[in-house]
User: What shape does this take?
Amino acid sequence: MIEDFMITINFDVLHDGRKWIAKNDEINVIGETLAEIDEKIKERLKEILGKGKIKVTMELDFRKNIPHWIWQYHPYYFYRTIYIDLDQP
Amino acid sequence: MAEERRWYTGMFSTEDWWAFWLGTFFVLLGIITSLSGVDLVGWIVKFGKWVALEKAFRASHKELMSPIASLISSYIILMLTTAVGAFFMKWDLKKYFAAFTIVFWLSVLAYIIGENAYIAATTLDRAKYGIDWSLSLGGAFYIMALIVGLIIGNFAPKGFREFIKLGARPEWFIKVAIVMLGAKLGYLAIKSFGYAIHLLTAGASATIAAYLLFWPLAFLVGRKLFKLSREWAACLASGISICGVSAAIATAGAIRARPIVPVMISALIVVFAVIELIVLPGILAAFWFNEPIAAGASLGLTVKTDGADAAAGAILDELMRSRAAIELGQKWEEGWILMSAVNTKIWIDMFIGVWAFVLATIWVYRVERRPGEKVQKMEIWWRFPKFVLGYFLAMFLLLIIGFNLYPDTASAYKALTLGIKPVEGSLRKFFFVLTFTSIGIVTDFRALKQEGLGRLTAAYAFILAVIIIPIGWLIAWLFHMGMMPPTAP
Assistant: This one.
């Protein structure tokens, strides 16, 4: 049940031209694909929290990845929500 | 700092929302003026055809102030109101002030030159201006503004180009103008209600064409004929089929594409939209004069940015009305052809959130199958174009007031004219001119020479010429055939 995921952790996402980067004040992970990012976040959360059910949100940092002239056409890029169950292998 | 996204996120930090706020603000000024008699909109500068320069512009309510005072007031008020938006969007205000000032005065210059009677007057107008020849170029001021912008966008030093882009915001300006156009639709609908509703609902045809015909065909051609990857083909298909840059970004976000993909496609979309803006109105006015509303609607289906579509609609409106005046001796009401162009586009714009949600669902659950990721229904709201809310709000406000506060439609129309006319007429047109100048400034044809864009450019040109334009014309004709603009008294 989604309601069980009580803790929410938010990340900013960037793409540097080659790799995806997800970061917040405590965690910074890099990966070639978003799936790799998701996996690395799960590993880091396991190290930090051990167990639990976590809701992870990721919003691409629009202003750092998209040129200024494009901002006026659309307000944001993506906002991902991932439910991670650290108790699952 | 990363934050959780809420339903109200962006309400004061995006140009889309600020188009809603500013457009609604000006429409409300017009409504208050009409209802109370306190003149809050008479300062708006109104440009017109001229032979003597002192007649080139004046205050909308000329008894309120002198022409020069009106022009300066318009500059100050537009500067300050847009700067409020710029402030909340955390732009560099000093640079915005400077850049907007240049864009404003260049637009004024283009407007004045383009409205010279020797350029703009029709054969029927010549006697009024005491001239014996004229080029009869209706809407020349739009083209003039575009040319000025294109010269800067393509030939000015790079540093200056980048600086002036801070004040050249075509999508923002046109979205503000479209909210005012909603007021115009409501205002005109008071006396032509059935016709306005017919036009509005016929615009729904656009969604059928854009989402169910254009997109699958464009995606298929991109994949099979031009061998584009799924990522590139999906973003290109959305950009060329739906609503241009906005759709390319929304799709890229939905399918979690790398940001470089929509950025490169956006550069193409903007350039092709300007080419269409220059070419299509002339072709349509020349060869589809018997179906002016269908011709307008076809622009909403084929020109892929709001700015270029509305701009092309405005030119077509001028060209068609000039031709009707000269050849038929009829004075068609200003704005209906433009509104048909904008209506179809707005229908397309409205569903981009739904489409992005559908694509995200397919991509996340079927194509890439990332474990744990959930697509949120809020995606539909976050991507919904908020200026459209302003368009409909303005329209319904005018209709509710017009049908409920006055004894009959004729007196409602007359009473609302005082406040609404300067907003939906003079101010909206000036925002259009600002849009034209800005479109020129942000359009850099050198984008077509970017490395790696060759195959994409070929795909875009092919799909546009072979799929989008022919089918767009057909769909527009099927849903709007026989509709003619009401004639002005």
Remarks:
- Chain A has a mean pLDDT of 89.
